[in-house]
Every structure is written in C-alpha cells, then in structure tokens.
Write a structure and sequence with these properties.
Layout (H helix, E strand, L loop, with lengths): L1 H17 L9 H14 L6 E13 L5 E6 L2 E6 L3 H6 L8 E9 L2 E9 L1 E3 L2 H23 L16 H25 L9 E2 L2 H30 L29 H24 L2 E3 L4 E2 L5 H20 L5
Helix pairs in contact: 1-4, 1-7, 4-5, 5-6, 5-7, 6-8, 7-8
Length: 323
C-alpha cells in the first residue's frame, strides 16, 4: 500500500511541476463591465449600466425573458431581450452565483451580461488540497479497519488481487476528487458544499470496475467449489511466500507473467493517471453553479478500460483455480 501512496503523490507532484503558477485575479469581464459603466456615465444618451457582483440567481422564467437575482437583502427583476442572452440562460439555474450588468431606462431594467462566478486556484493550493484529502482519507480508512490498508487488496490466497486493486484505486480517486472539489467550493460559501455530480462515462467506468471485482470473485468461488466436489482437498492453496506488491498484480500463482493481468493493470494505471491530470486542471478554475459535474473520461479510455476488464475476466473464466 505504501507504493500506492507514493505513486499517487508522485503523480500529483509531477503535474504540479508542469503547470505554471496562476494568480487569483479579478475577472476580465468585470473590468470591461466597469469600463463600460464609466464610459456610459459620460454619455447622457446611453442608458446607465449598473453592475451587480456576487449575486444569486433566484428564478428564470420558462421562456428566459425574465431573470430575478438577489444579493444580501436586495432583489432585481431584469428583462432579457436578446436571443443570445436567452440561449445563454439555459446553462444557469437557481442559486448560481453570478456577476451581471444591466441597463436602466424608462422601459425598466434590462440584462446586458451574465457570467458565472469563478475562483482561480493556484498550483500549490490544488496540490496541497489533493494531498491533504488523500492522506485524510487514508487515515480515516485506517481508523475504520484498524489494520494495514494493504489488506483491502489482499485476496483469499494471500496474494494481491487485481480486481480488488483496480476497484480500490478507482474508488479512492473518485472520492478524493469529489471531496477536494467540495473543499475548494466551500472557500466561497458553505452553500456550495454538495451539488457535485458524476458524469456518465466516469460512472460507467466505475461500474465496470465494480462489476469486474464481483464477477472475478464469483468465478473464483465457483471454481473452488467445483474442485472440492471433485475431491481436490485444497484447490487454491496459500503461497509459501508472503504477498508481493506489485509483482502479484502481474503474475499468476506460479510466478509467471500473466498477459491478461498485465494488460488490465497497465490500462487501469493509464486511466488513473489521465484522470488525475484532468482533475488537476479542472480544479484550476471552479465555477460556482449550484450544481457542477466532475470531469469525464473520454470514450477511448472507457473503451480500452472495458477491453482490459473483459480480457481479464475471460482469462479468469477459462483458467484453472490457482493459475
């Protein structure tokens, strides 16, 4: 397990060294809006442009012709007249935090621009958040089981299990990404804790991982029972040596390199590294929609992952117990 921890930390540090430090800055759009407001004040023929920052969307009409926002104890109802703005409002929902500009005239208040509030997170902030969450999750897991965490991926034959390894590492990565995202969102307001959704491909990949684990366990137990019925006393004897990480993940019980195991682990690690990089980039700029979605894995990774899992299960099904 210590190799797994070192591997995860090494990947996070590697990504950090490849990305330039970013500074938290005021949104360019707001600067432009302020400039627009200043220019408009010098022209009496131009409607006055007002700015509302850090507002919450309270409602949007079905035809997107009206939007209501509030900040503190003040509320504004704004007309939406342009088709572009009406289209853009489809990506907004109640309780999104936004910066808006609007004009005031005899005809009422009209929305001019709307942008979701974003928070820029520096490289160091992202690195330490991910590391802190990862270490915290490992410590919490240890408190629950009060045993070596390596036993989470140890099979009944006292060897490290491929199917357990890949489900543990995916579950760990998914939970770390979820918690880190919520922590960074909560820096603006605790109201933004939660509302982090899992995209379809990532959900399918996680489901494949769980399905592989359950199927592999079922195949092994079925073969062991069949062997016992045939009179085999110990169809899956314990190895004479202790578990070895990571060699157990690439070899069979006889110590020979297993191509199906090797392929599945390599594809799993490729998917894990790719997703770590995606999450690291995603956390660089967090949008304060009430509901957001974690970055998704691409279809190539999903398909390749599925092939690797399928090959592993096929090998498991046709091979004898202990191979």
């Amino acid at each position: 397990m210590r190799y797994l921890i070192l591997f995860i930390l090494a990947i996070v540090f590697f990504v950090g060294t490849q990305v330039k430090a970013q500074k938290d800055s005021i949104s360019t759009s707001l600067r432009n809006n302020e400039s627009l407001a200043n220019d408009s004040s010098t022209n009496q023929n131009t409607p006055k442009i007002d700015i509302i920052g850090n507002a919450l969307v309270k409602s949007i009409s079905e035809d997107a012709s009206l939007i209501q926002v509030e900040r503190n104890d003040s509320a504004w109802t704004l007309a939406v007249k342009t088709s572009d703005l009406k289209t853009s409002l489809k990506s907004f929902a109640k309780n999104d935090k936004v910066d808006i500009t609007f004009s005031q005239s005899k005809g009422g208040k009209e929305l001019k621009t709307i942008l979701v509030k974003t928070q820029q997170n520096s490289v160091s902030t992202r690195i330490w958040t991910l590391i802190g969450v990862a270490l915290g999750l490992l410590f919490f897991s240890w408190l629950l089981i009060r045993q070596s965490l390596s036993k989470l991926i140890l099979g009944l034959d006292n060897r490290y299990s491929n199917s357990k390894f890949q489900i543990v590492i995916w579950f760990f990565l998914l939970i770390v990404a979820y918690i880190a995202t919520n922590i960074l969102r909560s820096r603006v307001s605790i109201d933004f804790i939660g509302g982090v959704n899992i995209p379809s491909n990532l959900l399918m990949l996680s489901g494949l991982s769980a399905l592989t684990f359950a199927t592999a366990k079922g195949i092994t137990e079925s073969k062991v029972e069949e062997a016992k019925k045939e009179g085999v006393v110990d169809p899956k004897p314990l190895p004479t040596t202790g578990p070895k990480f990571p060699s157990d993940l690439f070899t069979d019980d006889a110590g020979n390199i297993d191509m199906a195991d090797f392929q599945m682990i390599i594809i799993t690690l490729l998917a894990v590294v790719t997703y770590i990089v995606q999450v690291f980039g995603f956390l660089a700029s967090i949008e304060f929609h009430k509901n957001i979605t974690l970055p998704d894995v691409d279809t190539t990774i999903l398909a390749t992952f599925g092939l690797g899992q399928g090959a592993y299960l096929a090998k498991k099904f046709v091979s004898k117990v202990g191979s």
